[in-house]
Amino acid sequence: MQLGLSVSDSDVSSFTPLVVLELADDTKAEAITWLLNRIRDKQQNGGAELLVNQLLFPAQDDQKPNPNVFVVGSTLQRLLNGAEDVGLFKEFQDGTMRGFTYANRESFKDFNEGFLSDAECQYIIKHELDTLRAKNEEHVPGYPKLKLYPGKSVVRRLQSKGVLIQYFPLHNKEDLKRLSFSWYKKFKLSLQPLDDIRHYFGEGLALYFGFLEYFTFALVPMALIGIPYYLFDWEDYDKYVLFAVFNLVWSTVFLEVWKRCSATLAYGWGTLSRKKAFEEPRAGFHGALGFNPVTGREEPVYPSSKRQLRIYLVSVPFVLLCLYLSFYVMMVYFDMEFWAINIYNENPDIATSILLFVPSIIYAVVIEIMNLLYRFAAEFLTDWENHRLESSFQNHLVLKVLVFNFVNCFASLFYIAFVMQDMVLLRQSLATLLITSQILNQVMEAFLPYWLQRRRNKKVHKRMRRLMGDKELPLLGQVQLETEMNTYLGTFDDYLEQFLLFGYVSLFSCVYPLAAVLVVLNNITEVYSDAFKMCHVFKRPFSEPAMNIGVWQLAFETMSIIAVVTNCALIGLSPQVKAYFPESDTQLILIVVAIEHVLLAFKFILAFVIPDVPKHIQVNLAKLEFDSLEALKKREYKTKKEAGSEDQT
Amino acid sequence: MQLGLSVSDSDVSSFTPLVVLELADDTKAEAITWLLNRIRDKQQNGGAELLVNQLLFPAQDDQKPNPNVFVVGSTLQRLLNGAEDVGLFKEFQDGTMRGFTYANRESFKDFNEGFLSDAECQYIIKHELDTLRAKNEEHVPGYPKLKLYPGKSVVRRLQSKGVLIQYFPLHNKEDLKRLSFSWYKKFKLSLQPLDDIRHYFGEGLALYFGFLEYFTFALVPMALIGIPYYLFDWEDYDKYVLFAVFNLVWSTVFLEVWKRCSATLAYGWGTLSRKKAFEEPRAGFHGALGFNPVTGREEPVYPSSKRQLRIYLVSVPFVLLCLYLSFYVMMVYFDMEFWAINIYNENPDIATSILLFVPSIIYAVVIEIMNLLYRFAAEFLTDWENHRLESSFQNHLVLKVLVFNFVNCFASLFYIAFVMQDMVLLRQSLATLLITSQILNQVMEAFLPYWLQRRRNKKVHKRMRRLMGDKELPLLGQVQLETEMNTYLGTFDDYLEQFLLFGYVSLFSCVYPLAAVLVVLNNITEVYSDAFKMCHVFKRPFSEPAMNIGVWQLAFETMSIIAVVTNCALIGLSPQVKAYFPESDTQLILIVVAIEHVLLAFKFILAFVIPDVPKHIQVNLAKLEFDSLEALKKREYKTKKEAGSEDQT
């Protein structure tokens, strides 16, 4: 079966393949013909007007790979129109960022050379594929059960029913080589090439790496103070007050400054003032056919009351149950801890002193396993809640995961600090938890996928050699390799890891000043391993326009509020401070509470007073708005005048 | 001197006068001629294209009134164009609120009968007058010192230099009669006619009255619980815990629900989704001529660093000094209080028991006087800080006034409650402060202005009769009367009063349950006196589009957070609760603090979870946005197609 022009490496020059579509290998021929026609059809007929071709393998044997693999490309003209559709912001001749319009194309900087990056082209193609809508078809040809209705996204329907297995953007080998060299291959003392990362992977990922870098640098002062603290005051448990005060200030300033950095980055990338497009329903969203109250179109509707029922009657009890389980495990850990201490006290030698650390290590591993299992359960549950929009799905998922991870990781530390009030155990427990989880994370996140990927690569190479002999077929080989790669599931897990590290540092690091040092070291390797996994372990992800780190800003801010409370309480518990109030605990507590309230109030005032967007960017944004208002006025005036002159004639 | 057509009562039919302009009586003739020409000139020549005429008095004597009074009106066509300029939202045929455009005028509901209310017309005329800009004039003709530059608002310049004394909208006697009847003249058990108020006075004022009504109704349950509490537990100081818990919940729910009510009102009035227009500099703003970085136009620029210096080196120390003074006065009050108690204890009879209340009453009067004096000082200082925008001026003024008023009114109560821990004195002090300030407020706010106004009216009537004999000249008389009326300075003082009442009720009412009853009674009379003063004491104000109560929402929310802290502390201090922890204060304090933290967290989560805008209005807003996006797409598609067909020919 051959549909239209085929792209083998001999005629790849017909267009640059940007996106790969993989359909199930038993897809019916009529469905394929229909889909390709719809993709190729002109826009005024409701098509996507893109270029698409099947990948054909020269030799065919029994172990042949899936034949239904297609590559998609586009003409420049179509891409420019698409750039306007998706509301892309590009640099204007005067240096400001403006929404691209085809009519003004010549006024944009560098319009004639490499105007759209690969990532942008791929994002535009994804948008056009996603918004390819059914017309009057009642179902997908050849699949009477794959119902369609006017306006339904064809790609989402095929995806939700498993006919479309995946679609992903292709790597650009040249660019990738250049990027990975400047990013992590040369040993250097320079910052990450954020603009290049954004150019290749899009704004969402570049913001994550920007945040990672910022967070690491922000920790350096704390680490620098921590080392002498650790070296000279290690056995002097009383002297952590100063460090707690430093923590307090640091965790507040840190987030306020990041907001401004993030705004500066997002402005430079043109996502700060970009308007959110109308959000499509998720691929997995289902419901009875009804009318969308906003668009007035027919589409599946799922009553919000049913979803609320599922959330409050199933999800919330499940989360509570998991929290209970986590507490139970914590209690088991404490039992183990006491058992180990007892053995050590009975017979103090090297073997038993090592045994002291065993319960903490086991507990740390169990915590990681529970987090992982819960993560899957949360994803399943949130999917089952049937949210209409991806953003709402994400918010509910993040909330579920955050609450559990927070309790699971920090409950034991809170218990040790405030119920047992045992600062020695707190220090030991914190150190073990932190180090174990860092090691586990690096293994799970980078080395394991890398090892799996290498095995897979070898297999694919072998198969390719068998299939094609010694012919040089770079495109076919690349598509085969990348189809088998793991899919990068977004920045969720990466942010989550940073969130927990931030928690360890801001909540309790005053009793274990080395925590900041450990986190800095972890994050330096994290940059390299994350960079490596993005470039070589995972499929290239579609670029995701982002104007800030979204819900994570809120999560980090909540953590920093909790950090104020915790640090104040730790200060109140310190023998150093207690010495000032020898006779009355009451007075000490009242003073600590009063100071805490003042600090919290100050934090809120600070967040309110410091503008989230730096002044010069505010001016630029205001200027843009003013210009567009003026242009609108002029156009309206012109229209009116024309209407007036028509009236007179 | 007579410029153009004169409007006396004989030819008033030439146009409906809507706005009155009063120039200084020694204004030079050439300046007047120039101004009137600019107002009358066509829009394409940069004029306002409005109708304007001088008011002429038939008889002239020595005691003649200011001759430079002008009335302004407009053609319907001009008003409709202006409605589009100011971005007015009106009801569309399908019941939604949409931005008015002249092109679609026929699709709006009731377009052909009374489409624009008087208040809207006057608002449009104000906008057109305010945006009447200087062209190439270097100064106002006849006033070489009144410098102008291209783009400067002519009216603002004239106003800041005192040539334009005032401009204000005229009352509409028919509408006013109808409104005041349905508002406060008939004794009835119905709500205020908010839609009519909005129709006559605009959205800003209607929202204030809506808030006043909502606040009063919200207090009714508290008042109903308060009466039996007061009657049966008056001498039982221990039993306020339940009431404090009720206060806690009430003050949180109250504000969340109001946000939704306010959004509903604002949506119905078309201000919810209305975009803010580009803000003009304040009339009093001055600085060296420079370039506005946003518009690129030449205009006065005042460096932000200088303003910061003025704020931090003068305003902040001044506010701190005032706060110190307020504390000093408080200490004097406590001395007086002890002196009175001593006298009573030495010789307890009726005279000395009355004497017990004297210090509180004196203190309450002093507080009111200090608030008033500080108010003037704050206005002067904020003006001197030379803010460029009215909104920034208002924010700084509100902040200054709120901080001082809060401390001045509540510091003594906090001191009595938490330092002296004397609940009997707290109750007595609260009652005296509340009652005295209510009485003073009603007198200052309504009766005094009314009495002054009546005296002034009589004088004007006498003068009019002397001037015109028995001729019936309703317009001339009306303008003369209204020119002399006081100007309503906005809702600031009204909101401030409600803010302080909210403070009395939410902070300490658990120890004096009658507070809510007093506030309800006060607010019922407040509705009547405020309504009366708006209709008969003050000049009609220009309508002010408002989508919410603005900075006051924040102020009330801050107060409700403070209320949580205060009520928790009062609960912790109550003997009832203390009885549960007979041996250890420490445990009690820790539990109270923990509960307080949970409540505060719960409050923030609640504010986050409850949507500020009700669901059905969200859907309507999304629908509007979707429609406008679709319309834009269609238009762009059409433009492209036309461009395409041109290319082909």
TrEMBL record, chains A, B:
Locations listed in the record: Membrane
Pfam families, per the entry: Anoctamin
InterPro entries: Anoctamin, Anoctamin_TM
Segments passing through the bilayer: 205-228, 240-258, 311-334, 354-376, 397-418, 501-524, 549-573, 588-610
UniProt keyword terms in alphabetical order: Membrane, Transmembrane, Transmembrane helix
GO molecular function: chloride channel activity
GO cellular component: plasma membrane
Membrane topology, as annotated: Multi-pass membrane protein
All copies of domain Anoctamin transmembrane, residue ranges: 197-622
Record-stated family: Belongs to the anoctamin family.
Annotated protein name in UniProt: Anoctamin
Annotated gene: LOC107657579
